[in-house]
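Dear colleague,

Thank you for sharing your sequence with our group. We've completed the structure prediction you requested, and as agreed, I am returning the results in plain text so they can be pasted directly into your records. Please verify that the sequence below matches your submission; if there's any discrepancy, let me know and we will rerun it promptly.
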Amino acid sequence: TKISIDNFDTYDVHFVHQKSSVKNAIPLVFSHGWPGSFIEVTKILPELVKGGKDFPAFHVVAPSLLDYGFSAASKKKGFNVNQQAEMCHKLMLKLVYNEYVCQGGDLGYGVCRTLARLYPKHCKAHHINMAIPREPTAESHPEIYKEWQNTSMTEWEKAGKARTEWFRRDGQAYYMIQGTRPQTIGYNVTDSPVGLLAWIYEKLHDWSDYEHYKWQDDEVLTWISIYYFSTAGPAATQRIYFEEQHAQPHGSFIEAMNYLP
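Please find the predicted structure tokens below.
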């Protein structure tokens, strides 16, 4: 479908739309990140639309972000997370979902937080599987700060903190490259299917619970093919990192870190 983005252009947006047969099902926009795509929703889609005794059912909308999958290329400088959120919001309105909830991780985290921040009358709740909160201070959030200072971390939380420290130390090279020289690595992932496979499969392995989930060859090849045969091309998916790094006065992720009322 066609979606117009303020001060940019009108874009062809690809999306998966699965309606639930359950009465009063909740509209849900499912936002992926990099190196993901709309395909992330497929395994849980049957459960989301079916619902259950202890959890609601959803009408699921899973768009390909612009520059990703089978959506159009953004093409213009400055296209960032705010514009991706605007696309998701306008898509939901076009589908006659005036009120909705959202789910996202990675770039989808930024999209969901931005939806909640910019469209609070429409986005009624958001669930994120990646959290980057701003550290509370005694001045900004005295009650949260006091609770935080008086609460000891569990072993599970300590392990999570250690994992985060490992990632910051050894796992963020891709972010710096895509945030500063996206075109350079873009030639590699566009010219070489093996280069694209290596660039993305490393993340699929390292960022998933690989001790308990073993990626099948067909899964990996489908995942990579969505990038290689995408409308905008695999290099386009990396541009948003550059835009985020160079946005003025700051990127959307800085805004996403702030607490929402």
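Summary note from our side: The first strand starts at residue 2 and ends at 4.

Kind regards,
the structure core
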